Amino acid sequence: MNKGRNRNRRPSNEPSPKDQARDELFQHIIGCGVVGCDPEHQREWFDETMRYFAERFHELSAVEIAELRTLGERFAQPPRSAASAARTESSAVATA
């Protein structure tokens, strides 16, 4: 009856192109030592890397590539301690 219904679905264990791109980007960030770099060098690295990813993952839209860059830039930031995060949050509340 409904045999053709699930024919076009990808197996659930196969990641989407967006998930593959995200995972690959995180691996590149770690492998290339982007974390802790000068912000200008990070910006240049991300510019070049996003051009590569747009070609490599042609299935992704420009919006998805931009979202991928945002995720990568956040991932490349040095970790914040709980104390500094609390100070940042409390100062944001105080200025509001």
* Strand residues, percent: under 5%
What's the total helix number? Answer: 4
Q: Mean pLDDT, nearest integer?
A: 83
The tally of strands reads: 0
Count of the domains: 1
Given the helix and strand composition, which structural class is it? mainly alpha
Unreliable stretches covering 5 or more consecutive residues: none
Distance between the termini: 60 Å
Biggest pleated-sheet summary: none
Overall shape: it is: extended
Share of helical residues: 55-70%
Output the radius of gyration. Answer: 19 Å
Sketch the topology as an H/E string, one letter per element.
HHHH
Task: Summarize this entry quickly.
Helices cover 65% and strands 0% of the residues.
Written description of the protein model:
There is one protein chain. This protein is mainly α and 96 residues long. It has one domain (17-95). The chain contains 4 helices and no strands. The model has no long low-confidence stretch (mean pLDDT 83).
